[in-house]
Specification:
By secondary structure, the chain is an alpha/beta fold. Helix content is about 50%, strand content about 10%. A five-stranded parallel β-sheet has the order 2-3-4-1-5, with helices on one face. The structure holds zinc ion.
Length: about 525
Amino acid sequence: MGYQALARKWRPRDFKRMVGQGHVLRALINALDKDKLHHAFLFTGTRGVGKTTIARIFAKCLNCETGVSSTPCGSCDTCREVDEGRFVDLIEVDAASKAKVDETRELMENAQFLPTRGRYKVYLIDEVHMFSGHSFNALLKTLEEPPPHVKFLLATTEPRKLPITVLSRCLQFNLRKLPIDEISGQLMHILNEEGIPVEEGATRLISVAAEGSMRDALSLLEQAISYCDDALAISDVKAMLGTVDRVHIQVLLKALAMGDGKALMARIAVMAGDVVDFDDALRELLGVLQRIAILQVVPDGFGDSEPGEEEIMALAKEITPEDVQLYYQIGLMGRRDLPLAPDPKSGFEMTLLRMLAFRPVGANTTISQGTRVNSDPAKQTGQARSSVAPPTPTPEQPQIAPVPFPANPEAWPQIVAGLDLVGLARQLAGNCTLTECKDGLVRLCISPSHRQLAGDKRREQVERALCSYWGKNIRLTIEVSTADSAETPAAIGKRTENERQQAAEQAINEDPTVQTLRTTFDARIEKVVTRNHD
Ligand SMILES: [Zn+2]
């Protein structure tokens, strides 16, 4: 027998040998063994997770010459023809290429005819969401009144694009991406069977790169075998995959933890010498940060320890969770902006320098000032360098010392500030101006727009407050008038508050740290809140 591609050679021939998708297989096996078969199945899931494999095994189960069961014999003509992909009653359709109405209609019309060789015609329609509206109608007609000898296996990566009429007539199964361990285990099994020695951890690298697809994993394994001389060595697999050496990432994070800019730049230079793909490096860095974040919350969070785990554990103790979050966020932004950088290396450099510059000064982190990139001491006095203490304009503090009687009209705001008043009575006093003050008589003026404040009860409250303010009997009258143009205490308060707000907004907008935050994180200033610290 000539050379066979691994993916073909190791394509599972029965459900028992399939890796992963246990929940789907169990349902299919039960249905087959209890002879309760639905006529249409819909498999959703990404590419390379086993849709075609399941369909082929299913076709064998239905058509094996030894009878319908979940365990086809694998040796009869039918089983062999299915395995070799030439069984006439297994009709594989790629909807992406057969989207024309006529062809679909013809296909569906043919479904009415009895199978040529087997008991059932099995239609595997891949990427079924690519069908046009007319093609769906043709499919739907057959789904509505399915001939007893037809089974449909529909597969799609985008079930949301399917009409509800089709969805409602199918049993739906979600095929999951395969976990790294399952892929890795299968690769180890294959290598053992093929008699190829492998360094521990090499299959894991391939499994991670395969991103949940067994098909991709097998084709990567194939490449790795031809790339490596006799045994699968980690270094070779890394070189083949273009995997960024974990050591680089660990050194970078260590340098960040120490605030050591020199070590950081030196390592980036080494990486550039190694012709590292800096986008991959950022992705790897993010992956390590994510592992660190999990380890900080759940110290034994990973049952599946991998090479270099102790170093990551050590970093998890050296970097604070806040820093990990910050680095992660900056790393994400850095990846997004990498294509915009003059070149990948400088984009990577700036991202790492940003992590260094924004590193909050915490209690349990060591700082070596000399190596800090941005060591402006004025900025480091706060707890966190990325937080901005808004400038606090000195509030115009009202003088509480009593104004002697009789008082000038200009002194009214000062008097109001010293009155023992709350609520609406305080509002009343605040919205008045003083027009006369003599011989135990105080005359106030209020504008027509505030006249509703000047009720008798509140007038009496203000009068009592004035009596106790000056320690003498005062008679208070309030006139509604527009005649007095002096500024009321309330108006003065409002004006100064506006001025203070404007000053604060301007100061914050001009703050260099805020400007960097904006460009780094796409930050937006929602609202500037000023507080009186009196
Ligand atoms: Zn058979």
